[in-house]
Structure formats: structure tokens, C-alpha cells
């Protein structure tokens, strides 16, 4: 790029930053010490800059930049997919049966055994392949992104991300993602500063400042890379996002590298026109991919339990097969010599009276294949079909379609549909998942007066609830909820309404001077950069945090527009009245003391146009109040009350203050500050903190701000509904603790009055110690930290257990450093037990790896189903570790979606995904599997009874075609319709009665009692079907001509009874009928008769003994129809009696709702319906409802006090 083609931005932003953006000059001794640590284990990587070909050869051979999140590839698909299929016990059994069908002892042909198995396994593998193909397509979208790279001779061109190699010099432009981990060489700013958004990595929304080495700043144009060569020696690939150790060897000099020069893959360049960087880590070596884990093969709890049921059935199969083989051996030895018609003189090993044991062993194998109908091979393929159709319904649910982005819900795997109905704990990311990163300026307190008439969402909900419960309540501090909350604010970030401050009306206020200072602090105390919109002429702001952006918008609307920043000044256009022209004022920036989670404040020191030096400070109220002068506490009492009110309303607050500095005082302090700022060593941060603390004293309080944290649409309501459904919610975020706590308040995971348990290992005494001494004591301090943390956990657990207040709620808050100790083997159980006892858990400053480890701890420690939800690459490990991973298909990349099992575009859709689809899918699959075992036991045991009845001969009472059609045609479609269309209650009722969801986590429909109940029902039905048919047909004529029934007639009549019994049973099981269910259930019965008619009309060579069996034999016999009716009623009578008793005497929740809906009481008696729905929630201490209940208790308390005081006054 020619030097004149683009004017570089000449601002040297590094002069503004004190804590995070310093470029000290490294001494030779420092460089030598750093060099000595490199080259050893863990620090062996060498990168030859601008020479990518070197890294393709040995001994380096670094991986390409190609990434993959798929389970399989071309080589591993067949072996891994086959292993997945035969991990299922039933498939393994049928594989063995298929092999044995090739031998002479098989009762069926090998085709009839191999073909169904191949069909079932092939269909399941095809489904796996399709789902993995979708992941592959998503990977290719990422791999096919393009970036500009240096191809040689100072020329740059574009190539795909996947072709980027270690050593490549790349040029990344504004708002682009970094394709790999890069070393920053230069930027569009003269001093090599650039701004990076790392939301995809650590959840932080505020911009990070990165800086290049001074020696590489001349590499600022395309042509300068013609002869560029350097070597980077650094650490090996590792998952740590916040550390980097390396040296940069350039022009025979060695320069130390640190994390501030590293640009990580999947972070985004912001507020900087372009940067040049050299690729250090590619593909799966990059830090974000190092934090990812392999895509696991997940199985649902129901599927794992189903395997145990298969074991039980297989044990039953072996048992009756042993009984059959023993019976056969006994009959062969003692009975066969007398059965002349079997030619005992001409036998084989299969039935030799002289070798009964051998004959018994051969018959055992025959019986194992014959009774195979006890284990339903079609169960798995039916479940696969049902799950695919369920996934289609999820994908096409219009209630989970986001019109703004055009993204529907996407069930990326259908294996886990039923798990959605059994979730116990939700682990959620914060940024981009719960929040939309928008703050609204709502209220403020200036000079002891509260401004802002709009109510927060919490206030509105509490007032409406009280009004609905107790009618009109007249409180002294009445909350107005007449504001139309559906009306969107006209200005993004500014929902303030109060004419006293708007349009310059504050000019005549007695406290006008204080109000002026308040507005100036909003407009000046920040690090933002203004960007003019050339079309509208208005300014937008790129701020390090959403709060700063909201303050600047508020200042602009109040008439104090921040419009320009230069190297040493900021400019504000001040308008004091709507009729006046704005006055542009310049303020010289002397020093900037940045915000940090430890400082909890930020300050800026300015010189105004009158030459006066001002220190403007904003921060947490507890920090500011401690630093107020005696004369600066005039408004402290009133402001404290306002801050408390704002906090109760769910708003996040900051206190604003200032101080006038004398010239001499500032000069003396600045000398100390510059000395600390330019110092080198590990104690530099502590020195800066100490010097900053010296000047941030004797402050004068001006007021406070209250902003409403804009969560994604519907997040508080969704969390409230999930809490009412009995789900526990943990928030895992990379954000600092204060931000996470504020978000907790905003989405009602935290509330006023909730007791916060903050676990921390920070030792404040170490801050003032010499860093070298601290390093020597690190091992001792680590042990002390662990012991201290264990003591904190023990005390907190004791406090929770001793709490007697039924309304008391506890919140556990822990940071990433402390979590490192809490997750160690000797402490994680204590930590988990405490977390389980708390109403909400928030983990702050956690790395992606820690998110995954916490998820694993909850998963393994509770034994319950966990769901992880996130939107960024930093959430991939957590999503893959959880039983169910849900990705948010937002605007920030697709890494989370690619690794997820389900994707939705908004957090609020999780409510419907779990409470509706999860509830339905769980009950459908559970009922479907129970019914499957019932019908196969009812059918399979009749084969055993008949074989025992015929001297264990291995003879089946049914025609081969009957047995083939039983699972494939005659009973498959009704059970599929049950799994796809069954609804115990409609979707809107699922949302109105969230407690219904607890039927899944409590496993009411797939516990052992219900499973054995259905098995017992199958056993009973098999006994009724066999013995009623044999008893009736055995020794009496079944036609007017006096004919008795042969085996074909008995077998057909018995099979007809089975078809009727199992189809009537499934009709009784269904709660919701559509024409499809009617078609499938009664169509299956009709299909049986049509088949019997068609089969009987075929040639006797095909139909054998069943020739014309319906038309000529059974159809005209009244006893055939009578037996069918009698057996069908007898089989289903116990189930009918059981369900009638349960509904009458011990109804489940959905039974009550079904009855209310049936009698239309929900329409006729709305009051009763609302009362029932308000009861239908699990008792919870988090969520919007819990917060509103707490607010109501508070307001009722105030009302009670007021009534009491009035009564006393009246009595007086």
C-alpha cells in the first residue's frame, strides 16, 4: 500500500492509558532472563516471520489453519459409527442372531434376520452422517473466510483462512475476526495501538487495548514487508487465554513479548482501520481451539436405561430358552423313542435320543433365535424415526423463529430430544446469551434530588401484582406503572423522562452549579472515541463498556455532547437551553486513571478553559463515599437513600464526584505518578494503585446514576418461568465480578435482600508487599489460600443450614482464581454441596476450560441432567461437556452453534424448547418405549407358551409372514404416531403450568415401577391371549359343520387378538387424537384383515395352511369374532381399571388439567383457572416472580407500618 493511499491516524493513545497499555524499555538483563526460560520444555516453538514454507518441513511441521468440530471424517466414520450402533445391546444381540441364522439350526431364513438388522443399523448411520455433514458445512463456512496476506515482494492478496500458515504476515481490517493467533506488528494508529473485542473468548464486551513493539512500528504499509524477517521464540500451544511468554528476535536484537501483543483467533478488530500481524498459532494450536474438546458422543438417560431393560429382557430370553432346551432334551430322551411317526431310527444331532444333551444345546440356540421377538429390533429404528420427526417439529416451531435475524430453532442432533424434558441444572454464559449489551439511562440523583419518572421493569411488575391482589393500594411513595412499557424508547440507551433536567430547564434550579458538574462528569470521565455519522450529523460512541456509552448518550441528550478527542484534549459542545447555539469547550487531559475490578472506580484529571485543574471520578458508591471530604458529604444521606431505591428497582448504579486541585499539588503528585508509570517490574501495578489512591481523596459528592441493563428480550420472564419449573440456573461468565452481579440483579437471579456468599482467595496484604518476597512465599500462600477457601465454604454451608427464615435466599458468587482451587479433587465436593444449597450461582472471570470443568462437576456430582447454553467460542467446552448443549445463533460467530446439540437465536426460546418440546418429547419417548416392551412381551411369550404346549418342539404357532409383519407394518405406525403427536396438555398450558415440567426430572413416566408395570401388563395379556384361545378352540367345533380348529386357525385367531389388544391399548394410552392417530391405529387393524384376505387368496404354495383362511374358515365362524372381542376386553380391562382409579383417587397434575379443559372450566371459570395456574409453580427464590414477591412483602411492610403509626396517632 502506498504511503499516501491512506492517512494514518496520528493519535498516540498509549499516553492516555496507565495500567494496561504501557511500553517500557526492556533492559538487556530482562531480555536475557526471558531468553533463558525459552527453548526448554513447554517453550520450544520457533516462528520464522514472513517465511511460512519453513514451517511445512520437519522438524517444525506446524498444523494448518483448518479447523473441524465434526465427530467423524471419511476414514473414521465407518468404524466409529458401527461401534456407536453396536454399543446398543439389542443391536449386538441381533448381530449374533444374524450370524447364527447362517447355520442349519436357525428357525428362520438368514435373509429374514440380516435384512432388518442392516436396515435398522444403516438408517441410524445415515442419520448420524447427515447430522455430522451439517457440522462439516458450518466448519467450511469458517474455514472459507478470506484474509489479506503477504504473498511476497510487498504485495498482499486474499486467501482462505484454512490456507493460512504459521509465519504468514496478514492484514486484518476493521470489524474483521482474526483468522489465527497473531503477533501484532503495527496498526493504523501511529504508536501501534489497536482495540480488540474478545466477547467470543471471555465474554467481555468492553474493548481491550493491544500494543505493538516499538521496533515494528515502521512496518506500517504493504511495501515495508518486502525484506521483513524475524524469529519468534515462544511458549508451546496451550489453553491459557491470558498469558503469553516469548521473545522477538529482529535486527540482531531480542525483545520480550507479553499478552498485550497477541491477537487471539475469533476476537474482533474494533475502532482501528487495520493491523498487520504475523501468525504464531494456527488451527487447533490456537488458544481458542485449545480450549475446545472433542465432540462427544452423547446418549440420553432414557436410552442408557433402555439398555438395562434390554439386559432384563435378554435374561428372560435366556431363561425361557434354557427351560425350552431342557424340556426339549427331556422329551428327546424319554418321549421320542415312543413317537414312531418321528422316525427315531433315522435322526441327526438336532434330535438324537441317544444324545439328549447335544440336542438340548442345539435347541438352546434355536430357542434364542425363536424368542427374539421379546427384544424388539424395530424399537431403535422406530425411536430414530420418531426423534427425527420430533426434531422437524422443533425446527418448524414458529414460536421459536426470530424475525429479526431470520433464524429458526435447529435440532442439530435428534438423539437428545427426550433429555430436554429432564433438565435439572442450566449453566449459562452471560454476554450475548443473557444480555444484548445495551444500557438505558433511566434515573439519576443530583444534589440530593432524584430525577427520572420512568419505572423499571421490576417496579412495574410489583405494582401490577399488588394491584391485582389487593385492589388499589395508596402508598405514600406510590409506584406509577402507567408508563406504556411496550413503547420503545426513541433514543437507544436513553429512557430518561423528567422535564426538570431536559431542554435546559435546570438552569434556574438552586443547585444549577452541581447539576452542571454532574453533566460534565458524564461527558468527560471516560475513554470513549466519538464517531460522526455523516448522514445524520450525530455522534455515536465506541466505549470500553456499555455503561460509558449510555452515560455519553445521556450527556448528549442533556445538552453536553462529547464531539472530539485529540492527543491531549477532549471537546464538548454545551447547550444550556434549547434556543441557544452550542458552545464548544476544550478540556486538556492531564492524566487518566483507568477503571479496574480492584479499583472499582475511574478518574480523569483535566484543565478547563479557565485554567482550573479538576479531578472527575466515578465509581462504586462504597468506594466513592469512603473518599469524600468533610465538606463533600452534603448530599450523602439523600443519595444513599436514592441508591438503595434504585438497587431495589433492579438498576445498576455509580456515584459521581469531583475535586479541584492546586497546581503545586498536582505537579508533585504527577512526578510520583510518572515515576510509577514508567517503572519496570512485577510491582508496577501496586505502585500505580498506591499513587492513584493518593490523589483520589477529599472528593465532593455530586450525585449518582442509575442505568437499566438491557437484557435480551424476554430473558427475565424466561428465567422466571424456568425457575418456576424447578430448574437451577448457574451463570458462568468471563466478565468481572461487578458486571456479573449487576446482570444477576437485572435478570432476577439476584435481588435485594438475598444474602450473597462471595468466595475469594485475594489476600490484600500481598498487594503492598515486595513482589519478589511474594514470589518466594507463593507456595505457602497457595496452601493458605486453599485452607482459607475451605474455611469460607464450611462457614457458608453452616450459615445456610442454620438459616430459619423461610424467605431467606442465598447466592454464591466466585471468581476464576478461587474456582481453580475449588475445582481441585479435595475441595470440589464441598464447593458443589454449598452451590446446591444456594438459590443461584454466579462464576466470574472463568476461562473456557473452567466453564467445562464446572459443567463436568455439576454433571458428575449431582447425577442429574445438565444443559449448557452459550453463544461464543469460549462456550464450546461447556456446551460439549453438558448432557445437552444449546448454542445461540447470534451475531458473534458460529463456534457455539457448530458444537451444540440444539441452536436457538434468543435465550427466551429456551423456555419453549424445554417446557413444551422437552416435556412432550420426554413423555412421548417414555410412553413409546414402555408400550414397545409391553407389546413385544405380549406377543413373544405366546410363542413360548405354544412351544411348551407342543413338547418344546421349536414349532411356532404363527405363520412366518405374520411374525415379519407384526413389528414392521401392523404395530409400527401407531407407536410412531404416539411418539410424534401425543400431547398430555396443549403447549400454552405447558407454559401456564410450569410445574408440569418436573414430571421429567422426577422421571415419573420411565421409573422402574412404571416399566415393570408395563412388563407385567404384557405378561398378563400374553396369558389371557394364549389360554383363552387354546381353551376355547381346543376341543370344540368352531364352525356349524362341526370342524375343529387346526394350528393355522388357532394361530390366526390368536394373532388377531394380539393385533386388537395392543392397538386398543395404545388408543387408551393416548391423550390427544388427530385424524393421523385414528388412521394409524384403526388402519393397522384394518390392514391386518386386508392382508389376511389377500394372503389367503394366494396360491397354496405361498399361503400353505392359511389358504382362504378368512373367507372360508374364520370369517364365517361367530366364535372367532366373539373370542376377539372377549380377549381384547379382558386384556385391557386391568389398565382401564388402573387409570380410572388413578384419575379418581390419586390424579397426576396433567390429569387435573385435562379434566378442567374437558369440562371447559378454563373458559367458564377464569378466576379458578388463574388460581390453579398461579399454584402450578415450584417454590423458588430466584426469578422475576420471587423478586416481585419480595418487593410486595417490602411494600406491605411499609403499609403495615403506616397503618400502625396512623392507629397510634388516632389513639393519641
UniProtKB/TrEMBL annotation:
GO biological-process terms attached to the record: phospholipid translocation
Enzyme superclass (EC): translocase
Keywords: ATP-binding, Isopeptide bond, Magnesium, Membrane, Metal-binding, Nucleotide-binding, Translocase, Transmembrane, Transmembrane helix, Ubl conjugation
Superkingdom of this protein's organism: Eukaryota
Domain P-type ATPase C-terminal: 897-1147
Gene3D superfamilies: Calcium-transporting ATPase, cytoplasmic domain N, Calcium-transporting ATPase, cytoplasmic transduction domain A, HAD superfamily/HAD-like
Annotated transmembrane regions: 89-107, 113-130, 309-330, 361-383, 932-949, 961-981, 1011-1035, 1047-1067, 1079-1098, 1118-1137
Subcellular location: Membrane
Membrane topology designation: Multi-pass membrane protein
Catalytic activities: ATP + H2O + phospholipidSide 1 = ADP + phosphate + phospholipidSide 2
EC assignment: 7.6.2.1
Binding site for ATP: 429-431, 548, 595, 618, 652, 733-735, 845, 851, 874-875
Any one GO cellular component localisation term in the record: plasma membrane
Protein name, per record: Phospholipid-transporting ATPase
Organism whose genome encodes this protein: Ananas comosus (Pineapple)
